[in-house]
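Quick one:
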Amino acid sequence: MAYWRISLELPSAPLVEAGLLPAGFFRHNESIEILRVYAFQPKERMLLARIVRTGPPWSRQEIDRARDALRRRYHLRDFEILEVGDDGRTYVALLRQQNPGILEDLLDELGAGVTPTPPTVLRRESATLSFVADDRAERRIADLLDGLGIRWTLKSRRAVRRPRSADEAGLTARQRELLSLAWNLGYFDIPARADLARLAALTGLSRNTVSQHLRRGMRRILRDWVG
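Output:
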């Protein structure tokens, strides 16, 4: 089966209206780039995102003080700043929120045939959606967008090798997700910026479950490199 790396361009307004972003997001921000999507719990998503905001620069301390207000403004279950750019307007954040209905429908409809990839960027006027898809999933995406009345333009489409499954890479999907989250949150930093309790709270999994997945994932990686 053929796989394609596809980028589409479409207006942002329908995505905001569908609930993928809060209605007031672009009153305070210029763009959001989706770096990684995690799905640890049903009807919930966690996004690792790079956000470029408008207005005067904010320091890390100013953003931290506004954290609760930002979480309420954007209806987030959790909101954590991981990195602030030198310009004070670009920051990487971990966002956790309940899936809007349209996103649940899309995920159910598309299933495992689609893998989101950078660059997936939503700007004030337009959005770029990038993903790897097989032929069937590509047709379903086009049908879904057409059914929603969203005008879209194909920016690029090129063949790629069949993506390796988590099993073929030696890791389960859950191990891969948790290792990625732990890495991005600084669990492996010295000193560590996150612990098992923090990972468990974010994912809704027990500390023991998180620990087991991390240890088994690391064991598989070390087995390949050391064993």
